Amino acid sequence: MESGRRSLAKTLVCRLCTTISKALFAEFLATGLYVFFGVGSALRWPLALPSMLQVAITFNLATAVIVQITWKASGAHVNPAVTLAFLVGSQISLPRAVAYVAAQLAGATAGAALLYGVTPGDIRDTFGVNVVRSSVSTGQAVAVELVLTLQLVLCVFASTDSRQTTGSPAATIGASVAVGHLIGIYFTGCSMNPARSFGSAVIVGKFAVHWIFWVGPLTGAVLASLIYNFILFPDTKTLAQRLAILTGTAEVQEVEGVEPQKKESQSSSEDTEMENVCQVA
Predict the structure, then answer these.
(1) CATH number corresponding to 1-255
(2) Which residues share a beta bridge with 67?
(3) Of 173, 19, 4, whose CA–CA distance to 96 is shortest?
(4) What's the CA gap between 24 and 74, in Å, rounded?
(5) Torsion of CA 272, 277, 280, 281, to 10 degrees
(6) pLDDT of 60-94, one tens digit each?
(7) Cβ neighbour number for residue 146 with a 10 Å cutoff
(8) Which of 143, 130, 34, 111 has its CA nearest to residue 78?
């Protein structure tokens, strides 16, 4: 009996680790691709300077592609602001959220490093680092990033909420990213994603106003989560349920719930086979 419990515990731990590892790799890969294609579209080639529309469309398409690839593996957060919003909305545990952000920052750095390595030296210039326009104050920059991220996170919640839709959120989230770039490029180069800003800044070592691209998006994400999950479409989670999700206990319970179901289905199939044999006899 005791050995059976130990084997069951090991099975649950292995299953949980496998699921989390796959999700972390998905976040790493998705964020790396997002930075590579997005920042790559903003590089200033002498014979073909990028237009605002080109950059917005590239970020749009890149977002749609990576969301379609990874949303069933990890939820396709690809953004520390989105992860924070899901944490505030009791849709992800704190340990998983911290791991997601670490994977996103690592992926963004890897994507930026790869892009930097394949880009000619005379084209790198500022390398797509987010900067505030000279006529825009820091307060205005924070406010713009806040509003841009607010609409993005609201769109993410609405597109992934099983109560509202069951289809792929790739197109709608991509459109939201494009909308943000169509206006945000003029103010701050449009971040909406601290990982996107972090990747470029790390590679070229420019952190002059980098804090803006954390404070603005994260504040907007928290506001969006509160608006969606507690005003527009409040859920019925109790305090105990929220605490279980926050600490990660709910994930373990979910895995534990899957194991007995599998055993029941196996036993029921075996009983059915036995009945069929008896009927034949």
Answers:
(1) 1.20.1080.10
(2) none
(3) 19
(4) 7
(5) -140
(6) 999 999 999 999 999 999 999 999 999 999 999 99
(7) 20
(8) 34
Please choose, from the candidates 117, 139, 31, 43, the residue with its C-alpha nearest in 3D space to the C-alpha of residue 76.
Answer: 31
Spatial CB neighbours of 128, under 8 Å, sequence gap ≥ 6: 38, 39, 40, 42, 43, 189, 200
Report CA-CA distances (Å) from 132 to 135, 140, 211, 212: 8, 9, 11, 9
C-alpha pair distances (Å), 16 with each of 29, 164, 209, 251, 252: 20, 28, 39, 8, 7
- Residue pointed to by tokens 């990028």: 50
DSSP 22-49: HHHHHHHHHHHHHHHHHHHHT--BTTBP
Q: Closest Cα partner for 252 from 14, 3, 6?
A: 14
Spatial contact of 148 and 177, defined as CB atoms under 8 Å apart = no
Which pLDDT tens digit goes with each residue over 116-128? 999 998 888 888 8
Domain boundaries, the chain: 1-255
Task: List % helix, strand, coil for the chain (3-state, nearest 5).
Answer: 75, 0, 25
What type of residue sits at position 182? L
Q: Is the dihedral of CA 174, 176, 177, 181 positive or negative?
A: positive
Q: Which amino acid is at 74?
A: S
- The token pair at 243 is 């605490």
The two tokens of residue 205 are 């070592």
